Automatic annotation (TrEMBL):
Matches recorded under Gene3D superfamilies: HUPs (3.40.50.620)
Lineage: Bacteria, Bacillati, Bacillota, Negativicutes, Selenomonadales
Family designation: Belongs to the universal stress protein A family.
The protein's name in its UniProt record: Universal stress protein
InterPro entries: Rossmann-like_a/b/a_fold, Universal_stress_UspA, UspA
Residue ranges annotated for the UspA domain, each copy included: 4-144
CDD domains in alphabetical order: USP-like (cd00293)
Pfam families reported for this sequence: Usp
Length: 144
C-alpha cells in the first residue's frame, strides 16, 4: 500500500463522517501521516437561503454555522493526542469544496463517510461521497 503523508477527511458531524474520521486516524497513525479535517458549510450566511426556502420549516433552514463548528469540535476531540491534524473550514457545495481542497493541496487519499447529514438528515443519501468518489483523481476510501 502506498504511504501517504497527509490524509483528507471531510466531516459534517454525522455518525458516518465520524466513523470515517476514526478510520483515517488509524491510517494516519499507522503511516505517520497528518490528518486534514475539513468541514464545509453549505451556505455562506444565514441570509443566503432566506428567499429560496422561506416556505420550509425552521428546523430545516436553521443556520448551519453552529453545526459546522460543532462538527469540527467533535472531530478535534476524537483525534487530539492521537495523530497530528489541522482543521479547515470552507463554504460552498460540499463535494466541490472537498475536491477543490484536495486539488489545491495535491492531496490523497480522501477518506469519506458513506452517508452524511445534508440539510435534512439522510437527504443526500451519500451523494457527497458518491460525487467525491467519482470525480477525485486519486484514492478515495469510503467508510460505511
Amino acid at each position: 500500500m502506498e504511504q501517504f503523508s497527509r490524509i483528507l477527511v471531510p466531516v459534517d458531524g454525522s455518525h458516518s463522517s465520524l466513523k470515517a474520521l476514526d478510520a483515517a486516524a488509524l491510517l494516519a497513525k499507522a503511516g505517520g501521516a497528518m490528518l486534514d479535517i475539513l468541514t464545509v458549510a453549505y451556505f455562506a450566511s444565514e441570509t443566503d437561503t432566506e428567499h429560496l426556502v422561506s416556505w420550509l420549516p425552521e428546523s430545516v433552514t436553521r443556520p448551519i454555522g453552529p453545526v459546522v463548528h460543532d462538527a469540527l469540535s467533535r472531530a478535534e476531540e476524537r483525534v487530539r493526542g492521537l495523530v497530528p491534524y489541522e482543521l479547515h473550514e470552507r463554504t460552498g457545495i460540499p463535494a466541490e469544496e472537498i475536491l477543490r481542497f484536495a486539488a489545491e493541496h495535491a492531496q490523497e487519499p480522501i477518506v469519506v463517510g458513506g452517508r452524511g447529514l445534508g440539510r435534512v438528515e439522510g437527504f443526500f443519501l451519500g451523494s457527497v461521497s458518491q460525487e467525491v468518489m467519482e470525480r477525485a483523481p486519486g484514492t478515495v476510501i469510503v467508510v460505511k
